[in-house]
Amino acid sequence: MKKKIIAAFICLCMGASALAGCGSSPAATENTAPAVKESQEQTTPAEESKTQETTAKETTSEEKEPVELTLWVTSRNSDDWSTEMENKFLEEHPWITLNKVVKEGDPGNEFYQAVAAGTAPDLVNCSFTMMNSFMAAGILEPLNQYTDNWDEWGNFTKEYTDMFTKDGTLYGLPSSVAPMLFGYNKALFKEAGISEPPKTWDEAIEDAKLINNPDKQITGYATLAAEWTEWFFQYYVWQAGGDLTKENEDGTAELTFTDPAVIEAAKYYQRLRSEGVLQSDLTLKFSDLVTNFGLGKIGMMPFAGDWVSEAAANGIDPDDIGLSLPPAGPSEDRTTAIAGICYVINAKIDQAKKDAAWEYIKYYCSKEYLSSYFENLATKGAPNPVIIPRDDMSVTDFYDFPEEYKTVLEEAKSVGRLEFYGKADFGSYVDRAVQKILVDPNADPEKEFAEAQKQCESEALPAFNEANKR
């Protein structure tokens, strides 16, 4: 049943726990029920089916050794539906028990250190950003042995599964995908006499000038300046026709902080500042920007599809949230990033746990589970325009989104890419350079990024290349 978007906040988390952990490899025994003895009492087909199902479960439970899976979960509240789905998993897998350990923040990003310390969960749902580092470190269990025998595997979108496949080996199963798009406030655009979102960098600045209204505390354009600046900045580098790093064939990285496209992106940032259309308070953090967008104080900004419900919770009419591909830079390219999370199994655990971990992943990534998940969200009326990484279903099957959302989600599949290679290791150096050119109007982008590259090459690059060289 489709539902119209209303202003309510729902955090998009897959599974009974948002960020879970556990691991193991494929079950060795087949679930076959023994022959049922003939009874003089006549049974109906339904009763016979139920008897066979019960017997099969009992047989399975007897054949399999008990396994306890350790998961990292956040303290986010779960509803009756998620509890029901977890209980269903446990009923179908009576040999598996769950040891849920509360882990706040982003558990997926702490997985590497925990594996080294021997305190990691058996599986985890981690961000796409961390996957290159995790794959190179050898801490992820190959999943081919499981997916090759899974009848649903052929329905997963190859564009996304290929991102986590190295030399034919799959290491992560995508569970949700959120493309980074460009958000704009339709009401502010209409007030300013603007009929459509900007298609180029120049158009974006001109539109921002028309929207900017300091008296009403409305800023025409916003981007990250206080934290994680490399996150948004990379999109502008791509749109200028370059990148911040280069991945070599042997898995090592080459820094390209001084690429002409990087300097073009930096100069555009400076121009946003000098033209007076960027947020005046450069100390605003990510959550502040999303909140201010929801309060109607920002005309446009980089904006992911899964922030829609959060913005709506802050007061904006969901119908006023416009989404498009980002404006094109000098390269006339509108490339953006694909973010998301995927399930991985801890390679350092024993085989029984790996097998049990796969059963957990298979359950929470199945079409049956995902359909129930989105149907449950529909009853709450708070959907986000995200991408389900399967070809046999779409989020638009469950909600009535604006037509432009459907279009932009489809477009994002062809222009989306993973974040720049080595971002987790090199991002902080880019971050500092971006902050300098924003804070100091006289800063020289070429000088700042050259110094950032030199420092990164000295402090971070050698260890990264040693760890990632194939």
From TrEMBL:
Matches recorded under Pfam families: SBP_bac_1
Name used for this protein in its record: Extracellular solute-binding protein
Keywords: Signal
Region (Disordered): 23-67
PANTHER family, per database record: ABC TRANSPORTER SUBSTRATE-BINDING PROTEIN, ARABINOSE-BINDING PROTEIN-RELATED
Alphabetical list of Gene3D superfamilies matching this protein: Periplasmic binding protein-like II
Bias (Basic and acidic residues) ranges: 47-67
Lineage: Bacteria, Bacillati, Bacillota, Clostridia, Lachnospirales
Span of the signal peptide: 1-20
Organism: Eisenbergiella porci
